[in-house]
Design brief:
alpha+beta; five-stranded antiparallel β-sheet; 27% strand
Length: 278
């Protein structure tokens, strides 16, 4: 008898997940992986709604599955990473969870989760839970670039302590902008739980002080804070402006954020109490 996975992967309702994202089960392959990654990113928002409402259920797979698959909600990187890695494992992929630092790695904590996939002798970076997520995995090779869907990304090998790490960058405003840097240290469930605890409870952290809600829609990426809306389209100037009074509620509908009546009312009240953006 196989020992239970420390990541609870045997508890995953794979059929239910695949039904939600709209992708059939398939043996491991690069095309199947690409399709699954894009379907996941498009199916679920990146957001910190439950952090703001002080009701986050945690990042154990059982809690994430109930939230994402059961209720059609989204969340942030620890949740996306835990769920997506479990889905891949259940379908026979060789995966490894890794942690990274968003922005300047000399000052940022390890508050981002990515998934390394080994397939047919190649290592690929899957990153389904970032605010501006890639739509498909990128080969983990120094200098690798990907422009799928018109969104330009690049990976660079960088030193991390006495080892190595990987910096993911996106092309923005005519230059490469650092998104995050992940290292190759082993990751266990307690690492995700600890990172989540810091991200969701540390008073000064931005997850507690602003709304973050993003989603890839057809031909555009929408990013909301409690004060602004940003719409990006490949090959077009970025639209960035202040939210109009009452507009956030309309965007909750547009982005299909599935909140109960009480949750929606509580969120709108909470964002009204948030401090102005710096």
């Amino acid at each position: 008898m196989t020992d239970p996975s420390p990541w609870q992967v045997e508890e995953l309702d794979l059929d239910a997940y695949l039904a939600v994202v709209g992708v059939p089960a398939a043996p491991p392959s690069r095309s199947a992986l690409d399709a699954l990654h894009e379907a996941h990113v498009r199916a679920f928002t990146f957001d910190n709604v439950d952090v703001l409402l002080d009701q986050h259920p945690g990042v154990a797979l059982s809690a994430v599955q109930e939230k994402f698959v059961g209720r059609g909600r989204g969340g942030y990187c620890f949740e996306h990473g835990a769920l997506f890695a479990a889905v891949l494992e259940r379908q026979g992929y060789d995966v490894e969870r890794r942690l990274g630092r968003v922005g300047d790695p000399t000052v940022a904590a390890r508050t981002h989760c990515v998934v390394l996939v080994r397939l047919d002798g190649e290592e690929l970076l899957a990153d389904p839970g970032f605010g501006m997520s890639v739509l498909r995995p990128i080969p983990l090779v120094d200098g690798a670039e990907d422009g799928y869907g018109g969104w330009e990304y690049r990976l660079r090998e960088v030193p991390v302590g006495r080892g190595r790490g990987w910096a993911l960058e996106r092309w923005r405003n005519e230059h490469w902008e650092l998104m995050h840097t992940h290292d190759e240290l082993p990751v266990t469930p307690i690492d995700l739980a600890t990172g989540h605890h810091f991200t969701s409870t540390y008073p000064p952290i931005h997850f507690r002080k602003m709304l973050m809600l993003t989603r890839h829609l057809d031909g555009r990426h929408v990013s909301l804070t409690h004060q602004t809306v940003t719409v990006r389209r490949p090959g077009h100037p970025t639209e960035h402006r202040e939210l109009r009074d009452g507009e956030l509620s309309d965007w909750l509908d547009e982005l299909d954020v599935r909140l109960s009546t009480d949750e929606r009312a509580a969120l709108l009240l909470r964002v009204g109490e948030l401090p102005p953006l710096a």
